[in-house]
């Protein structure tokens, strides 16, 4: 009985240590940096991404909270509508309300939230391969009298986190160009 209680105690300590490690968003964010104005690298995830261009604004670690971080944001909000975009790399805890969520559950939940905010789904929870990694993607469209824009959600599960991208563009063609990360993303 004592052995069983000891094993349960050790397991609880191990799980608590894992949960603390998985919520260390400051360390995850600190592992990232821009290489000039055209590339972002994050050593924690072992990823390098060539950014869409042109960019009028680059933001590093715009939000770092307990369970999520905006690792970087590349924005072009000026000039020709065909070149406008918002390209964001984020990390979220893979644990919500004390239980692990799958990548599909995370992307579905984000898509459903965006639908409640008035976006329309174009493609939902499609499995794609990028640089040898499996991601889940959903694409949406916002139509209103003031604006039309497209949004993509592309995520994978990596090192205890849900890691990926939020992308926005003014046209469907520009979104397709932004989401085509083949040859622009590399994992070590």
Number of beta strands: 13
CATH topology value: Protein Transport Mog1p, Chain A
Global shape: globular
Indicate the radius of gyration in whole angstroms. Answer: 18 Å
Briefly, what CATH class? Alpha Beta
- Strand line-up in the sheet with most strands: 4-5-6-12-11-10-9
| Poorly predicted regions | 1-22
Number of helices: 4
- N-to-C SSE string, H for helix and E for strand: HHEEEEEEEEHEEEEHE
Mean pLDDT: 84
What's the structural domain tally? 1
Helix content percent band: 25-40%
CATH-assigned homologous superfamily: Mog1/PsbP, alpha/beta/alpha sandwich
Task: Report the portion of residues in β strands.
Answer: over 45%
Task: Give a structural overview.
The chain has helices spanning 2-22, 25-30, 103-116, 172-179; strands at residues 32-35, 39-42, 47-50, 57-64, 68-76, 85-93, 95-96, 99-100, 120-130, 133-143, 148-158, 161-169, 185-187. It is of the alpha+beta class and 188 residues long. It has one domain: 3-Layer(aba) Sandwich (Protein Transport Mog1p, Chain A). The strands form three sheets. The protein has a seven-stranded antiparallel β-sheet. Strand 2 and strand 3 (47-50) form a beta hairpin. Mean pLDDT is 84; it is low at 1-22.
